[in-house]
Amino acid sequence: MNALDDRGSDIVIVELALNSERKMARSLIEASGLAFEEGVDVMYGIYENEQLVATGSRAGNILKMLAVAPEHQGGAVLGELVTELVMSGQRAGHESLFVYTKPEFVFSFQALNFSLLAAQEKVALLEYGKGLSKWLESNKDLVRPGLNGAVVVNCNPFTNGHLYLIESAAQRVDNLYIFVVKEDRSVFPFEVRYRLVEQGVRHLANVIQLDTSRYIVSGATFPTYFLKKDDPVARIQMELDVTLFASKIAPFFGITRRFVGTEPNCPLTGGYNMAMQRILPAHGIELEIIERKQAETGVISASKVRELVGKGDFAGLADYVPPTTRAYLESDEATTIRERLQNDFKKKSLSGC
After folding, report:
1. Which residue of 108, 143, 302, 342 is surrounded by the most CB atoms within 10 Å?
2. Which overall architecture, per CATH, does domain 134-293 show?
3. Domain extent listing, the chain
4. Global confidence as pTM
5. 157 cis-preceded (ω within 30 degrees of 0)
6. What's the CA gap between 213 and 218, in Å, rounded?
7. Is 143 exposed, middle or buried (0-12, 13-18, 19+ CB in 10 A)?
8. How many CB atoms lie within 10 A of CB 345?
9. Across the chain, where does the E strand assignment appear?
10. Which residues have a Cβ under 8 Å from the Cβ of 351 and sit 6 or more positions away?
């Protein structure tokens, strides 16, 4: 498409599909101090007199790699680029779109109808659309008076460790919100994880279960959680995720305590707990760390459960999962998941891992 920049010059916005075009975009991105990433759904470029002056990409519901040449910063180019990316996201069916940017650029995106979700020293997270407010409004009937706490769980799958954490937390508050991570990047699908939690906590009268939508430990707020690698930006993403919870979500539900288990095995989850220790108290939220439940053979974890299923050791599951989870793992419904875990275990065994 064609448009005019603030100087009245013709600018052309095109999708960058050719390798040569993306190579030019990469140069502009890296010259702007950003990292180039593969695997985006779409990449656009803005040309002036056949010179690439701006580029931006969309991966799912996240806008990224937005770079504008210095001589075009502060003008209409960013708005044209973001508008095109937003339209592409809406065509793809995304109700809300997210963007990470430096704090000094927050006002530029707010002028383009983005709302600030959370910010820390180096990065801010903004959303296009009313997704957060709609999600909160849809859960307003779950708001309860009293001393309220929260746990956030993925449950891949639900274990006796998760149950112990929830039971311990529920004893310490009037109402306990269980937020189940909705992002579907785990071995066990969200629908299954959510149902296993629901079945496992039915005996607790003061728990309130809901999903996290896109606003707690999601691909938008905390993508590193699902990558499980030593990502240098992991701390920033953790802090954004915790800040969003503390400043927007916890106040809505009246949550003043958050409960987590000790984390002896996963550095990423341990780092997330540390981020909560740094941030939550400043928002009036107390973090309570509960010692992890152990079986005779060691700490109970979802990864150990997946390993036992992979080995076909269903008798060994007794100490690790409640009866409802075990019944699912042995059911016909779980056949595909069992086969996947068993194949993964065989591959690791053959590779010597």
Report:
1. 302
2. 3-Layer(aba) Sandwich (3.40)
3. 2-129, 134-293
4. 0.88
5. yes
6. 8
7. middle
8. 17
9. 2-4, 10-15, 42-48, 51-59, 62-68, 97-101, 114-119, 124-128, 148-153, 175-180, 207-211, 255-261, 286-290, 294-295, 298-299
10. none
Alpha-carbon distance of 11 to 69, in angstroms, equals 13
Planar angle of CA 254, 120, 41, nearest 5 degrees: 100
Q: Which residues pair with 259 in a beta bridge?
A: 288
Average pLDDT per block of 10 residues along the chain, 353 residues long: 49 91 93 87 93 94 92 88 96 93 90 93 89 96 98 96 97 98 92 98 98 85 48 74 96 98 76 90 96 83 94 92 97 97 84 53
Contact 104, 33 (CB under 8 A): no
Question: What is the DSSP code (8-state) at residue 118?
Answer: E
Measured from the Cβ of residue 334, the count of other Cβ atoms closer than 10 Å reads: 17
Number of residues assigned to the chain: 353
2-129 belongs to CATH 3.10.180.10: no
| DSSP letter for each residue of 280-296 | GGGGT-EEEEEPPPEET
- The string of DSSP letters for 214-266 reads TSSSSTTT-THHHH-S--TTHHHHHHHHHHHIIIIIHHHHTEEEEEEE--SS-
Any idea of the CA torsion for 89, 90, 94, 96, to the nearest 10 degrees? 90
Q: Using CA atoms, how far apart are residues 305 and 321, in angstroms rounded to an integer?
A: 8
The rounded distance, in Å, linking the Cα atoms of 123 and 129 is 20
Contacts of 343 by beta carbon, 8 Å cutoff, 6+ apart? none
